[in-house]
Amino acid sequence: MAFWKNLNIGTKIIAVILPCILIIISVISFLSIKTSQTAIEAEAFNKLVAIRELKAGQIESYFAQIRSQIETFSENKMIVDAMKDFSDGYYDLETQLNFDAERVETANQNLKKYYQQQFLPKLSSNMNKTADLQNYLPKSKIARVLQDLYISSNRNELGSKHLLDTAKDDSDYSAAHSKYHPTIRNYLNKFGYYDIFLVDAKSGSIVYSVYKEADFATSLVDGPYSETNFAKVFEVARSTGKKSFVKLVDFAPYHPSYNAAASFIASPIFDNDSLLGVAIFQMPIDIINSIMTSDKDWKKGGMGDSGETYMVGSDLTLKSESRFLIESPSQYLDLMANLNMGDKLISEIKNAGSAIGRQIIDTKSTQKAINGDSGSSIIKDYRNISVLSAFKPLKIKDVDWAIISEIDEDEAFSSVFNLQRLMLIVALCSMAIAALVIFLFSKIYISSPINRMFSAVDNLRSGDGDLTLRLPDFGNNEIGRTANSLNGFIEHIQSIMTDISHAVEALSVTADKVKNTADNVKDNSGRQVVSLEQTTTAISQISVSISQNAGHAKSTDELASGAAKLTTDGGEAVQQTLAAMKDISERVRLIEDFAYQTDLLALNAMIEAARVGEAGAGFAVVADAVRGLAEQSQLSAKEIGDLAEDSVKIAQEAGDLVHGVLPDIHKTAELVRQIASASDEQAHGVKEINNAMEQLDGSAGQSNLDANALASSSEEVREIINKLQQQVSLFKI
User: Are strands 274-282 and 206-209 parallel, antiparallel or unpaired?
Assistant: First the structure.
């Protein structure tokens, strides 16, 4: 709910009206698409059913035509004669050509070479296994010789053996072949059959074929192909005993056609009431595929890029080729491999280039069609793709086949999808246009006037307002009346702001004066404080110096007094030293005399010892030593005496000097005592002056603080006035 309240009016209008328009457009679009989709789906199914009916009619007519052709063919007089001549020539061949051992052996060798080098390799490749030669060589000599004449010794390439008109062996058979083969070959080319056979009724021997494949001249009764669908249709036609009888047999792999799927249609040949043989057509797969594929031009046939029509038999195998195998074999086989088709079957289809008679198409449509139902529905086809499918059973005698026409659902309903996209685009464009119209209307006639009023009020709120601004006249509606009221309010605010602006200007002048006075007081007070601080500092320094001088004077007085006392004491000590030195001198003289006497005594002793001789030698030595010591003592005593006399002289002089300086020292000590006393009196006076200066400095500092406070207060007043001026200046008045 809070979110809705915060939306602007224009957004709310769009949010309310646009969903309503969206719902209306959606409903209309849905109904239109649904109606169109139903019509398009019906049209797509009707078109598909029409194509199915067209192809069904074409294929049914074609098979009916084939039945008529083979019936007419078997009753034709030339074919009756040909049947006789080929049969007679077939059985007379051994006699006419004299089948000796060499002739037969040559035929055998030629046939083996042909089978081993041309027929069997291709057959083995299509079968995915190695074909055994013995299973395919004809048993009778006649069959081997005829195959040698018209196949192995035929110089035409494989697939072109039908171009040989005669083997030129002078046999009745070759004469008949030369006579009838060109006409029958032209008939085959005209109607597009795969091959045309004449089979002897008695032995089941194929006495004639146009293309001369490996079944030529063999017996359908006991030959290599007696178990094929070819042999079965022959047996039915031979056994009927009726003229104008036609029998069609379903497709099945047929080895003489290199394991390609082959279907046969047969009709007995009678000469009056005598059964001569059976005429058999090998069904023309190419023409059937041409009908189903519109000559491989599916788009021209109305099947677009993904549509196709195909046939299946009662065993659910294909009876016509898949479009996708024709258009892209490798892609088709890869798809089948992904759908878990067996590798062997894929290889067979790849080698044969055809899925007819091999691939099973088991879908809902094929099941229903084989069960006799007709209809159309959307199903998953054999490619596992969703398709529109129209199906029905075919009315082809002797076989239970069904025809299915299908097209991919995406393509069939592409017009529906295109319509859906178109309707979606129309709906989106309609909503965009409606939203634009609503937006412009709400913006021009609702949002714009409201926004202009909001801007004016917001300018006032934010302080950026232009009080000279006036909203235009929006008329006498709700918005116009609101605009007029807002204009009156702005005029009132403008008047108030004008008065405030004038008052602020006057207050600003006064505040400037107060600030200037405070600044002058602050400056003077600051200079006084500085001067007092300097004076106080100087006096403090003088006081310290005087105190130091007084201390030095006292110390000097003490030293002087001490010096006087020491000097006095020193004089007395000098006198005592002089007396002692004199006493020492007298004693040294005594020692000197004693040493002299000792020297004389030692000399006498030496003389006496000499007199004694050797007995006094030791004594003489001692006496000599004593004499030496006495002489040394005499010399030392003399030196000491000399020194003592010098010391006495010096001491005498020092005593005289001390007695002379002692009065001056006493006088100096007295002067120092007077200086110390005067220094004490000076220090006391300077201390009192210093105390007075400190009191004066404190008073000056307080005055300076008061001046600073006054300047600060005036500055604050100035700032308040400036802010007020700034706020007032935000409004244009």
Answer: unpaired
DSSP label of 732: B
Q: What is the 3-state secondary structure (H, E, C) of 232-275?
A: HHHHHHHHHCCCCCCEEEEEEEEHHHCCEEEEEEEEEEEECCEE
Long-range contacts of 713-718 (CB under 8 A, 24+ apart): 713/518, 714/511, 714/514, 714/515, 714/517, 714/518, 714/519, 715/515, 717/511, 717/514, 717/515, 718/508, 718/511, 718/512, 718/515
* All domains in the chain, ordered by first residue: 76-283 (3.30.450.20), 502-729 (1.10.287.2610)
Dist. CA 460–CA 467, nearest whole Å:
8
pLDDT at residue 436, rounded to an integer: 80
Per the listing, tokens 């067996």 go with 342
206 phi/psi in degrees, rounded to 5: -80, 95
Structure tokens at 503: 């008052």
Within 13 A of 641's CA, how many CA atoms are on the CB side? 14
Give the tokens for residue 621: 């030595």
Q: What is the pLDDT of residue 409?
A: 92
Count Cα neighbours of 475 within 13 Å in the Cβ-side half-sphere: 6
* CA gyration radius, the chain: 76
Residue tagged 């295109």 (tokens): 418
Q: Which residues of the chain have pLDDT under 50?
A: none
| DSSP letters spanning 291-325 | HHHTTT-TTTTT-TTT-EEEEE-TT-BBSS--HHH
In the prediction, which pLDDT does 460 show? 60
**End-to-end CA, the chain:** 41
**pLDDT recorded at residue 481:** 76
Q: Which residues pair with 402 in a beta bridge?
A: 312, 393
Instruction: Give the residue from 156, 174, 170 showing the smallest Cα distance to 114.
Output: 156
pLDDT in tens, 520-565: 767 776 776 676 677 677 667 766 766 776 666 677 667 667 766 7
Number of C-beta neighbours around residue 290 at 10 A:
17
Choose among 254, 314, 310, 309: nearest CA to 283: 254
